[in-house]
Write a structure and sequence with these properties.
Structural class: alpha+beta
Distance between the termini: 35 Å
Strand order of the largest sheet: 2-1-3-4
Radius of gyration: 20 Å
GO cellular component, one term: cytoplasm
Number of domains: 2
EC number: 2.5.1.18
CATH topology of the largest domain: Glutathione S-transferase Yfyf (Class Pi), Chain A, domain 2
Order of helices and strands: EHEEEHHHHHHH
Catalytic activity: RX + glutathione = an S-substituted glutathione + a halide anion + H(+)
CATH class of the largest domain: Mainly Alpha
Protein name: glutathione transferase
CATH architecture of the largest domain: Up-down Bundle
Number of strands: 4
Low-confidence stretches: none
Strand content: 5-15%
Shape: globular
GO molecular function: glutathione peroxidase activity; glutathione transferase activity
Number of helices: 8
Length: 256
């Protein structure tokens, strides 16, 4: 166990094709030692029941922490909670922008633009972006239901297509337009969300935008966002995370 762990045993409960990929990257950036316990999605693409033994909702990512202060493992669920807690306790200052402008410490409105952006995007990902991407995933399944007879399949396909046209396409486009503009106006010219340095907000956003890059025409319609997706995958911490997972036989797939 490394000194950076502060005497804490860290276990990441990793699920394929899930946001847990981002947490591996986070742990690598924080230079932490950790155990990776893998779970594989079932044939229906749902998480296996074993994850409910760790957290009642049976979702991933989930992290457990054990040290002299814990009588039983501390369970952290939800990507945002995990990222913020780990940055708070394990020297994550390098991943969180400076909060206050000089001389304005503790004042309302005294925060830096970088910190306000960071705070916003830590909540934007799950609150605004992911619901539409998950709904798109559901519509993809509805359009190609595996168990329906072929002569019935056109009906759900038609319904799903109407939902996409009336609701999903414009909302996903709006979010990608927003991200394109935010990256163009990033502090100090970017190239990351909050300026020149990688932040926890970039790690939080990585799973949905990397997944989206495999499904949507980012390079044609949102070139700045496409370059950002490439940039994230070029980060040494991200590449270490992918290499680690693959070396342990865990196929990395950021996909919707």
């Amino acid at each position: 166990m490394s000194d950076t762990n502060k005497g804490t045993k860290i276990t990441l409960h990793w699920l394929n094709q899930s946001r847990s990929q981002s947490i591996v990257w986070l742990l690598e950036e924080l230079n932490l030692s950790y155990d990776l316990k893998a779970y594989k999605r079932q044939a229906d693409m749902l998480a296996p029941p074993a994850l409910k033994e760790i957290h009642p909702l049976g979702k991933s990512p989930v992290i457990t922490l054990e040290n002299e202060n814990t009588s039983s493992p501390m369970v952290l669920a939800e990507s945002g909670v995990i990222i913020e807690y780990m940055c708070d306790h394990f020297d994550g200052d390098k991943l969180v922008p400076k909060r206050y402008q000089d001389g304005k410490e503790g004042q309302v409105g005294g925060e830096t633009d970088e910190w306000m952006r960071h705070k916003y995007f830590m909540h934007y990902v799950e609150g605004s972006l992911m619901p539409f991407l998950v709904m798109q995933l559901v519509m993809d399944v509805v359009k190609n239901p595996p168990l329906l007879p072929f002569f019935v399949k056109p009906l759900p396909r038609m319904v799903a297509s109407q939902v996409e046209k009336a609701f999903l396409e414009r909302n996903i486009t709006s979010n990608f337009d927003f991200l394109e503009q935010q990256l163009k106006t990033a502090p100090a010219g970017g190239p990351f969300l909050c300026g020149k340095q990688l932040s926890a907000a970039d790690i939080m956003l990585s799973f949905p935008v990397i997944s989206a890059g495999a499904k949507f025409p980012l390079k044609e319609k949102w070139p700045t966002l496409a370059k950002y997706v490439d940039l994230l995958q070029e980060q040494e911490g991200y590449k270490r995370a992918v290499k680690l997972e693959e070396s342990e036989g865990k196929k990395v797939e950021a996909s919707l």
